[in-house]
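Following up on my earlier message about S-adenosyl-L-homocysteine. Here are the inputs again, as you asked, copied directly from the submission form:
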Amino acid sequence: LRLANDLNENEILAWLCEENPENLDKLWQYADKVRKEYVGDDVFLRGLIEISNMCSRNCAYCGIRAGNSKTNRYKMQVDEIIKSAHDAKRFGYGTVVLQSGEDRSTNAFEIAEIVRQIKHETGLAVTLSLGERPFEDYKLWKEAGADRYLLRFETSDPDLFKLIHPSFGSTVSDRFRNLKDLKKLGFEVGSGVMVGIPGQSYETLAHDIWLFGNMELEMVGIGPYISHPETPLGNGEVVLSIPENQVSNSELMTYKAIALTRITCPDINIPATTALATLNKNTGRELGLERGANVVMPNVTPSKYRVLYELYPDKACLNETADECNLCLSARIKSIGRTIGVGSGTSRAMKNRG
Ligand code: SAH
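Thanks, got it. Here's what our run produced:
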C-alpha cells in the first residue's frame, strides 16, 4: 500500500481495511511526519464552553436530542459564558469554542451579542458550533466577529444521514449547503464525522475522508460513535440495516481515520477529540496527537453544566474542573515532546488560502 498526500478513494479504503500491525505502524509514522512537516510540533488549545444543552433536533445518535426527556436542560447565563471565556484566556488558550444543541428558540442576536462581548473583552478567536441555521444568522455572527464554525456532516451517505438526522419541520437538512454558506461568509470552516455509526460502511468512511480534502476544509474533527441508551440508536428503537462491511466504532479505527485525514489534508487543524479520549482515558489524546492530530479542546464549561452536556455516556473529563483540565492536558502534551501553541492557532490551510 502506497503512502502519499494524493491517496485516492480506493487507497484510503484499502488503508481503512488494513489490520497488519507493522503496516499500521507505517501509517502512524507517515501521518506523524506529515503533521510535523506541515503544521509543526505546536498543539493548539481551544477552550470549549458548552453553552446550552437545549435542542430542537432529534438526531438518533445524540444524547441531548429534543426527545430525551430524562435530560435536565440548561442554558448558561451570558455573564457565566463571559466568565468562562476569561478563564480560557487566563489559561493561555487562544480560542474559545461555543457549542450547544441546535436550539432554534435562541435568537441569533443573543449569540451575536455574546460573540461581540467575548471579542471585545478577551480578544480571543471565537469558534461557533451551534448547528444548522439560516444564512442570515451565520452572516450576523460573522459580522459580530466570530472567526470559525464547526459543523460536522456526520456521514456523506445521504440515506444514512436522513435516518440518523431527521429534518427540522419542513426544512430539509443539507449540511453541505450550510458549509458552503459558511465558507462564502469567510469563516474558517471545520467539519467531520463519527467513526462506526451503525450503517456506515468502509466505502462510506473512505468517501467521507476523500471529501474532506475535496471540500477544502480548514479543520476536521473525528471521533468514535459512542452509543447512548436514551437515544433511538442506542435503545434499538431505530434499527438500521447493518452493512456486511460495517465500520467498527473502535479506538483503532478512529486512529486510522485521523491518520488518513492528516495525510490527505496536510495543512488543516485536527483535534484529538474527547470521544476518542473516552475510549482510552489513559493515552487516547496522546496517541491521537501522535497519529495526525495537532489540536486539543480542554473543557472550560462550569462543572454543574458539564455533567448535563451528555452527548454520549461516560464522557472523558466529566468530573474535572477547568483548572484540572488545563493542568492535565498541558502535561500530556509536554509528555510526548510537543509544545503548546501560542496565539489564536489559525490553521495553515486558512493562511495558505490567503
Ligand atoms: N448541535 C451542534 C453540535 C453537536 S455536538 C451540531 O449539531 O452541529 C458535536 C458533535 O458531537 C456532533 O457533530 C456529533 O458528531 C458528535 N456526537 C453526538 N452524539 C454522539 C455520540 N453518541 N457519539 C459520538 N459523538 C457524538
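One observation from looking it over: The chain has 14 helices and eight strands. Hope that helps, and feel free to reply on this thread.
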